[in-house]
Design brief:
The chain folds into two domains: about 140 residues, Alpha-Beta Complex (Aspartate Aminotransferase, domain 1), CATH 3.90.1150.10; about 250 residues, Type I PLP-dependent aspartate aminotransferase-like (Major domain) (Aspartate Aminotransferase, domain 2), CATH 3.40.640.10. Helices cover about 45% and strands about 15% of the residues. Helix 2 packs across helix 11, helix 12 runs parallel beside helix 14 and helix 13 crosses helix 14. By secondary structure, the chain is an alpha/beta fold. It has an eight-stranded mixed β-sheet with strand order 2-9-8-7-6-3-4-5, sandwiched between helices. Bound molecules: pyridoxal-5'-phosphate (PLP). Pyridoxal-5'-phosphate (PLP) binds next to helix 4.
Length: about 400
């Protein structure tokens, strides 16, 4: 399905438009030779196991490897009972929503949040309640207010879905102080936290604050991870970290009782890839590549944006988030930008309860540096054109 892959890669907009649409990894950076060797190793070492239904919790080899990774990267001492393999972070979130939320519950999300997670949560009969964030991440006082208001009107809250690190779409990272305040509030209020941490490994400067999962000692936190951003999204492989009873609940779901563990074959391939020592050097190469693109985008924006336009400065991940001055809207800029040959997503879909008209999400992950400069130049022209 090469055509479909190409269409996805370029995103919406007029044919041939330079796309700043999706938050995709760069296919040119996929470690093809190493993955192929890992497929061969799987064939040699794990036949026929890798082609059978696997244990509900996921491939034991990969569970061990993820425990080692968390210990090495973050000093987390996990046992395999605290890890669950999912068919990507999306499937992990889907399963969590199915099992943790009841019809009519509220699910709290950030404003803005990852638009496809909003779409996924909307598949369920839950009510989404949005809580704003600022440069330090989710505003915990606003969360407390919203939580109390929902409970006061008799609406149970199933969980908060948050992306504290290199957030999609804002690029913001929640400060260590906010994380601590959030965990304290969640523990006092008995609020489950679903921490989407898929960008943690893609850090371009400084260090990543401890996860909510770590700060809470695992208590009432479900942390999502993924190989989509660091290896390849087509592998459909991610994980959930949680306390053993929560992991057992995921593994005992009807889905996994029927299907067995998620994607056993690719789980073995990724386990063999990691076992051969490829993951760390590969992520180091990715970080260098994406850091250069992040720097190019920030440089291009500084050179081309008219006065009044502001943008975030992400320390990792894939996205810069741009805010237009009033009275401009992203949709009118989009029309002018598409007429000049670029496309991007305007802000509204990232807001579960409205807003976002003046925002533009700009991924820098899969557009190469010359195109980043060309694209931002066109964006600057489009903003000037509609400002007149
Ligand atoms: C915050 C966030 N979570 C989850 C995903 C999807 O992850 P996966 O491919 O593991 O389902 C994305 C992809 O854009 C994302 O940005």
């Amino acid at each position: 399905m090469v055509e479909q892959a190409t269409a996805l890669q370029t995103g919406g907009g007029p044919p041939g438009a330079l796309s700043f649409y999706y938050g995709h990894p760069d296919p040119a950076a996929f470690p093809l030779a190493e993955l192929r060797a890992a497929v061969d190793a799987t064939w040699q070492r794990h036949f026929p196991t890798a082609l059978l239904y696997g244990p509900e919790q996921g491939s034991p080899l990969l569970l061990d490897i993820l425990c080692q990774k968390m210990r090495h990267d973050e000093g987390l001492k996990l046992s395999p009972e605290q890890v669950f393999i999912a068919a990507g972070a999306s499937q992990g979130l889907d399963l969590i929503c199915r099992l943790w939320a009841r019809p009519g519950d509220a699910v709290l999300v950030e404003a803005p949040s990852y638009h496809e997670a909003i779409a996924l949560l909307r598949d369920y009969p839950v009510r989404l309640a949005a809580v704003p964030l600022d440069d330090e991440g989710l505003i915990v006082d606003a969360l407390a207010e919203r939580l109390h208001a929902l409970r006061a009107e008799g609406t149970p809250v199933a969980f908060l879905y948050t992306i504290p690190t290199f957030q999609n779409p804002s690029g913001v990272t929640m400060s260590a102080a906010r994380r601590q305040a959030l965990v304290t509030l969640a523990q006092t209020e008995k609020l489950w936290l679903v921490e989407d941490d898929v960008y943690r490994d893609l850090c371009y400067e400084g260090t990543v604050p401890p996860s909510l999962f770590e700060l809470a000692g695992g208590q009432s936190v479900l942390r999502l991870g993924s190989f989509s951003k660091t290896l390849a999204p087509g592998l459909r492989l991610g994980w959930v970290l949680a306390e053993p009873p929560a992991i057992a609940r995921l593994a005992d779901s009807g889905l996994h009782r029927s299907a067995g563990g998620a994607n056993p074959f690719t789980a073995y391939v990724v386990a063999e890839f990691c076992r051969a020592g490829h993951l760390e050097p590969h992520v180091a190469r990715l970080v260098a590549r994406y850091r250069a693109r992040r720097d190019a985008m920030l440089e291009a924006l500084a050179a081309t944006m008219p006065p009044g336009v502001t943008w975030t400065r992400p320390r990792g991940g894939f996205f810069v988030w741009l805010t237009l001055p009033e009275p401009l809207t992203a949709r009118e800029v989009l029309a002018a930008a598409e007429a000049r040959g670029i496309t991007f997503p305007p802000g509204e879909p990232f807001f579960a309860e409205g807003g976002g008209e003046r925002h533009i999400r700009l991924p820098f992950s899969y557009v190469d540096t010359p195109d980043i400069f060309r694209g931002m130049d066109i964006l600057g022209q489009a903003i000037r054109a509609v400002s007149r």
